[in-house]
Amino acid sequence: MNAFDQAMNALDDKFSFLSSSKQIVSDMNEEKKIIVFERGDLVFVFNFHPSKTYDGYKVGCDLPGKYKVALDSDALMFGGHGRVAHDNDHFTSPEGVPGVPETNFNNRPNSFKILSPSRTCVAYYRVEEKAEKPKDEGAASWGKTALGYIDVEATGVKDAADGEATSGSEKASTGGDSSKKGINFVFLSPDKDNK
């Protein structure tokens, strides 16, 4: 019990769910003895049934995306049976008509399916997906300036290789060596005729 308490405190340190004003109970099923609620960015599923495990139990949630197990009372480290796979990804499905809450699943716009073992509490968090960076395309493919390549100033452009500024219609890149990757562009000085 002490280990679970420590894990719960660590979970709050990471997600600050105890102090969150977002507190929504989306499912209280007396027959199945399940309570589902959101607190902060976490989705909690309590199964109080003494013997029934529900596979594919549908859980409503606010945000779409991928969810993973954040805390599991059935984990072996807490003296549980280890019935919940922590490496599974739970992907959401949209529910109802967008903008019409009464058509949603348990008044939640998205849902995902889980395994809910008897006598357990499992908390799920939404995984923040990071866009994959294109390989070998550099910063230009992202529409951003790679600070290691160039530094744009009002008076000119510094060459990343030697730090010298260029102006006029000269091209700046990573030192003039075409084998180096960088962003080539033209910086026009206001004192030159731009014909």
Features:
mainly beta; Alpha-amylase/branching enzyme C-terminal all beta domain-containing protein; Immunoglobulin-like; 1,4-alpha-glucan branching enzyme activity; 195 residues; cation binding; three-stranded antiparallel sheet; six-stranded antiparallel sheet; A-amylase/branching_C
Can you offer a commentary on this structure?
It is a single chain. With 195 residues, the chain is mainly beta. It has a domain at 1-127: Golgi alpha-mannosidase II (Immunoglobulin-like, Sandwich). The protein has 1 helix and 14 strands; from the N terminus they run αββββββββββββββ. The protein has one helix at residues 2-15, and strands at residues 23-29, 34-39, 42-47, 54-61, 66-72, 90-91, 93-94, 110-116, 120-127, 150-153, 156-159, 165-166, 171-172, 185-186. It has a 6-stranded antiparallel beta sheet with strand order 1-2-3-9-5-6. The longest helix has 14 residues, at 2-15. Residues 158-195 are annotated as: Disordered. Residues 27-126 form the Alpha-amylase/branching enzyme C-terminal all beta domain. GO terms for molecular function: 1,4-alpha-glucan branching enzyme activity; cation binding.
